[in-house]
UniProtKB/TrEMBL annotation:
It comes from the Bacteria. Belongs to the glycosyl hydrolase 16 family. GO terms for molecular function: hydrolase activity, hydrolyzing O-glycosyl compounds. Residues 51-315 form the GH16 domain. Pfam families: Glyco_hydro_16, Ricin_B_lectin. One of its GO terms (biological process) is carbohydrate metabolic process. This is Beta-glucanase (GH16 family). InterPro entries: Beta-glucanase-like, ConA-like_dom_sf, Glycosyl_Hydrlase_16, Ricin_B-like_lectins, Ricin_B_lectin. Signal peptide: none annotated. PANTHER family: GLYCOSIDE HYDROLASE FAMILY 16 PROTEIN, GLYCOSYL HYDROLASE-RELATED.
């Protein structure tokens, strides 16, 4: 999420950071060290923190603070739209839990909010884990549905904990309360997991850093970024946006498909070997969408079904083949006695051991589970409850991505869990996906 923190004794240009400080020549010179080949996803992740937003009203105060206002630039002592010319005034009350989602709501009010002599007609929300939750390395993902209105700018992103912006835990602060921009961007680091503008059929994956080593006040000409703009079909529908982050690189994903990657081992990218905090916001107008909001399209909402943070699991890509233990002491099995052809049914069966049944031995390879040279696959990449699972040629699609979360196996593409219909434990029970519900019917754990 752009934030031009210009603290010189001159007004801001209003340009988006990526236009102002791309430093194309420098980034091009570094490109050989920044660009790396697509990597396989981590085989298994341990879910260590999450917010499913299943409550009502205010979000969980144990997890969330708020950035309020229009982004005071302390160097100029003026509001500058968070450095990007944005229109909105952020208020915590514009973030609520409803219907199993975090709802970020943008309103166009007939009576303005007046602060420091400025009229603000548009309100929205920016919610952050700043000072509440920090993250360093692992997988961070959120399932989101986005607005497509003119001038809309939803984002899911992170700032380094070294960034010195302010935030508040108050859900209903005084109408005149506001927070300020960080003075030390971009040397504190920024990772944009997902940004979207207008009705675009693309999203933005981006990263910002300072070309020096260390934390400094914002300095013109010292900042760089590295960006990709992958296509996404129908952003108004739910999609899973994620990064996988190690000490050596950051990889971006949409619905389990890698869309961007950067090597963070160069010395001047040390920002990304430190803790970060999360931010969701719904901005309005400004330099990134490049279009003004339209009153008749309000109110706008961005929905967050969940946000989850995983750390490295016990398995590694290409790990040993073992059984997947299912309900009632059964095992995940492939119909056909070790023949394993395309479209072979995946079912429950009495556990028989590796010496007897090869098709009960599954190995992680990236986020895929493989046996007999093929992958555990959701039929037709379906997302509906009751869609069957099968064995199929490994093809890199989201239909074949799985994550172990405690005692369940979840398919991020559908956000559904591997499931035995009605909790059956009978031999030959055909497995399916179903909304994750924590029942015994969804107890599937790959043995170490």
């Amino acid at each position: 999420m752009p934030m031009i923190a210009d603290f010189a004794d001159r007004p801001l240009s209003g340009s988006r950071r990526r236009l102002l400080v791309l430093l194309v020549a420098v980034v091009t010179a570094l490109a050989g060290s920044l660009i790396v080949q697509q990597q396989p996803a981590q085989a298994a992740w341990n879910l260590v923190w999450w917010d499913e937003f299943n409550g009502s009203g205010a979000p969980d105060s144990a997890n969330w603070n708020y950035n309020v206002g229009n982004g005071l630039n302390p160097g100029l002592n003026t509001f500058d739209g968070w450095g990007n010319g944005e229109w909105e005034w952020y208020r915590p009350e514009n973030c609520t839990q409803s219907g199993g989602n975090l709802v970020l709501r943008a309103n166009w009010n007939t009576t303005p909010l007046v602060v420091n002599g400025r009229n603000f007609y548009q309100t929205s929300c920016r919610i952050t884990t700043d000072t509440k939750r920090s993250f360093q390395y692992g997988r961070i993902e959120a399932r989101m549905a986005l607005p497509t209105a003119t001038g809309s700018w939803p984002a899911f992103w992170m700032l380094g904990d070294a960034c010195d912006e302010t935030s508040t835990g108050a859900y209903n602060p005084a109408q005149t309360y506001y927070d300020r921009l960080p003075t030390n961007w971009a040397s504190c680091g920024e990772v944009d997991i997902m940004e979207h503008a207008n009705a675009n059929a693309t999203v933005t994956n981006n990263i910002f850093w300072d070309l020096r080593t260390g934390v400094f006040p914002w300095t013109a000409g010292q900042n760089a970024n590295y960006v990709a703009n992958p296509g996404v079909s129908n952003v108004a529908a739910f999609h899973v946006y994620a990064i996988e982050w190690t000490a050596a690189q950051i990889r971006w994903y949409v619905d389990g498909v890698q869309t961007h990657v950067i090597d963070t081992t160069p010395g001047t990218l040390e920002e990304f070997r430190k803790p970060f905090h999360l931010i969701f916001n719904l901005a309005l107008g400004g330099s990134y969408p490049g279009q003004n909001p339209v009153q008749s399209q309000f109110p706008l909402t961005a929905l967050v079904d969940y946000v989850r943070y995983y750390q490295d699991g016990p398995s590694t890509p290409g790990g040993s083949a073992t059984q997947i233990n299912g309900p009632g002491g059964t095992c995940v099995d492939v119909a056909g006695d070790d023949t394993g052809g395309n479209l072979a049914a995946v079912q429950l069966w009495t556990c028989q051991g590796s010496a007897v049944s090869k098709d009960q031995q599954w190995a992680w390879n990236g986020q895929t589970l493989r046996t007999l040279g093929r992958c555990l696959d959701v039929d037709g990449a379906g997302t509906a409850d009751g869609t069957k699972v099968q064995l199929y040629d490994c093809n890199g699609t989201g239909a074949q991505n799985w994550v172990q979360e405690g005692n369940r196996l979840r398919n991020p593409n559908s956000n559904k869990c591997l499931d035995s219909p009605q909790g059956s434990t009978a031999n030959g029970t055909r497995l399916q996906i179903w909304v994750c519900n924590g029942s015994a019917a969804q107890s599937f754990v790959k043995a170490a």
